[in-house]
Amino acid sequence: MVELRDPQKLAELSSRLKPSERADPDALVAAALEALRLSAHENAAALLDAALLSDPRSAKAWSARGMLEERQANDPGAILAYETALAIDDTDSLSALSLAQLQARAGQADRARSLVNWLILEDAVPLDVRQKAHALKRQLDAERAAL
Fold it and tell me: Which of 89, 108, 123 is the last residue of a domain?
């Protein structure tokens, strides 16, 4: 199986599909999230590949790809997936929080801080996400103060 992580390659491959060959990306993402919940990573990957082939601009599919990559300890792949999800849907607070956490771990504190500040200030962000963003901000501030 070819792993599809490149947004441009996905768009190119998707454009070659006939409408009758495209599956419902939301249903595929839902099935992939269930596979992730069961730690069936290979199944989740296959479902997400199919979802992204069907719709390379599915923010939900890219966000789920980020979760999969993160669970498989592929932080660079997770960062790319979450960045792609946010490029498609810049209101996706869960992807933003996950991306900020990964950036903080990767030593990209300034990038993480920028996302965290947006999460804290944006009214539409759910309370639990905002609370986690505050915790990450405290961690980033403590690390900065220790330098």
Answer: 89
Question: Residue 3 contacts by C-beta under 8 Å, 6 or more apart in sequence?
Answer: 45, 49
Structure tokens at 85: 């999800």
What is the model's pLDDT at position 147? 82
Q: 0.70 cut: is pTM over it?
A: yes
- Angle CA 25–66–37, to nearest 5: 75
Instruction: Specify the 3-state DSSP secondary structure of 37.
Output: helix
> Which tokens hold the place of 43?
């199944």
Are 78 and 96 contained in the same domain?
Answer: no
pLDDT in tens, 97-117: 999 999 999 999 999 999 999
Do 71 and 98 meet the contact criterion of CB atoms below 8 Å apart?
Answer: no
